[in-house]
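sanity check this record:

:::
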Amino acid sequence: MTEPRSRFPVLTIFLGLSGWTALFFSSHSKLISATVATIGGVFWTALVGITSKIWARVEKTVVELAGDALDIYIRDFASGYRKRYLKHLQQRHRTFDVKGLSTQGIYALEIEQVYVELTVDPTLAEKASRNPIAKTTGGRHDIWTFLSSPQMTRQDFAVLGPPGSGKTTLLKHIALMLAANQGQFRGVKRLPILIFIRDHAAAIAAKPKQTISHIVTDAAERMGITAPAGWFGRELARGRCLVMLDGLDEVADASLRKTVADWVEIQLQKFGTNRFMVSSRPFGYKSNPLNRVTVLEVRPFNSEQSERFIKNWYLANEMMSSRKNDEGVHIAAQEGASDLLKRIRASPNLPELAVNPLLLTMIANVHRWRSSLPGRRVELYAEICEAFLGKRQQARGMELDLTPAKKKRVLQPLAFHMMRAEKRELTLAEASEAIRIPLKLVNSALSAEEFLRMVENSSGLLLERENGVYSFAHLTFQEYLAASHVVEDKFEKELADQVALPWWHETIRLYVALGDATRIVEACVTDREPGVVKLTLAMECLDEALTVLPDLRNRVESMVVSGLEDLSQERARLAAETMLNLRLRRLSRITDHHHVDGGLISCAEYQLFIDENLAAGDYCQPDHWSKTRFPTGSARQPVLGVRSSDALKFCRWLSNRQGGEWTYEIPDRNFSDWTSEGAGYWANTPHGTMVYGNPGTFSKITPAILQSRLAEDRRAIAAYSRTIAAESRKDDLAKALARILEIALGRARYLTPAAFGQDLIDALNYNLAGILTSILECLQFDFEYTRRLNQQLCQALARSLDRDPTCALDQDLGFTIDLNRHQARAIIRCLLLGQILRSQTDSNDDGEERWYSRLLPSRNKTPQNNLTIPELLRLYSALVILEDRIGGKLPAFEGIRIVKVRRGTEMNDASTAEASS
């Protein structure tokens, strides 16, 4: 057979001549020598000849391969399969999955309407938490941080998380984002492939040597979007895919799961230029870990993520409900979300459950579609147990060894046993013995140890805290299952015997929410004086009871509501203690370390503080009260007109009486959830203590009112001065000032509550001469007396000069001097009236406006006295406010709102948290 003739003689000749020409000109230009040029020409001629022969041999193969590749590309482009595939992914996975939930909304929401970016962080597989409501720890990064990192471009990932943590939704979100953006999103350029392992485990076991391309092709065919022959294989061969394998743990059989894990390991090696992501619960992965992968743990929601999810969820439902997206829809969604957030924060348990996306979805569903929370939270707990014990797996077509109902039937007596023993944890031996008989009733073939392992691995409700020690993931689940056991096995009498023990109270409240509360409530109030603990529980049971006898309800409510105004001090105290106890149990959570009250301390609750301090000789009632007890009919109303010093003292009193790891404080800022009209609350600010609330409703003394009062006093002084002057020498200043003092003390007597009245009367009757002498010395600017008696007063005034008088009322009246507070007010008025008298002696004919204007220079200090007229005017305005409050002309507005703070933390930590919506 003859050698094949060169197919390109012209090209060969052209290349040879071109090389020789280049060498000739290089030699001619003296870039290289003639010898080098000649040798180079020889080599060039040989190289061109050899290349021509090589090309002749491989030409056909190269052309065929290039033609095949071009043909495939044209066919793929013409078929538009990539575009159709990506569109199908968007349509198939866009719906938010709520299968297996008992309470579902009317509308099918889309993932991207409600999705909140989950956060993941690297961890060791053995340290990944199995607790669905674990505390948030560690850093917080989204999945795209790892997928787009230049340092991790060759990394594959195992995404681990407990039940309900959002692993499947996370993978769907990744697929949707890449599909919607033609395979490019946030620096990631990959074709998304999402495979649910449970659907293909059997096929993998039957043919373990088949590759991922076969599985993906089969999956596409099942979805009704059959790919052109070899399409997925070619994409995988090019290394352009992100392969997401969801649910390694959902392969129930351990040996089958091991087979699947080995198969996945092979695919990671065979198609290593692609990126792989495998999701699993921790237990399913720990027994079958993958090599060369980075383990990422899905973190629980923080409060900001929970709040964002609730707002997204409500907006999506409102948009679907109204088929609109206008301002009205957003207003309705905001109202619904705000109500739910408020109820979650007010509950002692719901904030801890809301860190799990599945549980948060269930909470939102129950709130919107079934009933308000937390009153019917028992319905929510029932759904949680159903979902976590297997109802969601059933909805996905998975076969279970035991149904959710059977698992619950075994766990109920375990929970009740732990409540009886007052334990949060049990050893394996104790737990096995507690469920031995109940387990035989539902499955005689399963051992107690196997059951406990199965529930731990599949549900997350029961956890092995340490080797051989089990507990429920949250005390709430233990209490709910114990309450369900009481209902089903009729242990109500035993439960009624526990009403005095706070350990049982939550279980009791959940029990009455499942049935009739009559027997329990009767047990709480059987005693003549039931005590605060029992009466508090009775009131809580009335709030949550499914049913209760009306007469019993009325009796209990009367003991508390009517008891607040009872003439019997003991009954009134019991009712007030109960109301305060209920308030402290209903504080809203801001963070793990801070809880805030939703309202203001009531008069009856504050009365407990007044009475205890009164016994020690300390008077803490609001200044405008006429007695040391709240006015009749105001027991449940907020206590207003409280000094800031007394508000702080109240918090210290409350902290001391409650004890424990919590302390009580006034807030450090304004909370935007405050809606009360005409009232505010003391709060610490960088500028001192001030009142927060709606400033437009606060009572104020206007300049016009102040000027009118000053003119009234000035006319009275002038009239008395003229009368005294007509009866005696004009220079008898002592008599004139004595008469002025009589006027001032008379008004002070009017200001003085009954508790202080006798003190002042005694002073007037038995020590009038001494008081007159002191005041006269003060009015004549005896510097030594002023320094001795009023030094602290002057310092307090100097510090408060730049404050709003209406918000500094407490500072203006709260001096610490040797006299009691009401005698201090009398002296202040005398000082001011003395200055008024001196100012009007210059000219008795001045008009009111001119006289008033001379009284107000900003820094017009008197020659010897430390007090300026503006300072005295501030005190004068404070006294006018107080007089008008006593007379009913102005309402008080300074209330007390409390914040519970864990000892060892700072209140301002909450300011940077997610406190209020």
